[in-house]
Amino acid sequence: MTFTRKGNTITTVTENMGIYIKNVTTLNDDDTKDIYAALSGDQVALTNIRISR
User: 12: left (phi > 0), else alpha (psi -120 to 50), else beta?
Assistant: First the structure.
């Protein structure tokens, strides 16, 4: 899963068994500095997590 931010647009891309899902969210407030994400699920194995700035 990747999170990318360019200005007020957040793009999330995830892949599972060859199926890619892309979500684009546009923030109404251009002054927002920090964005927080939570990953959860009852049958999830989170691996290879990388945080870049």
Answer: beta
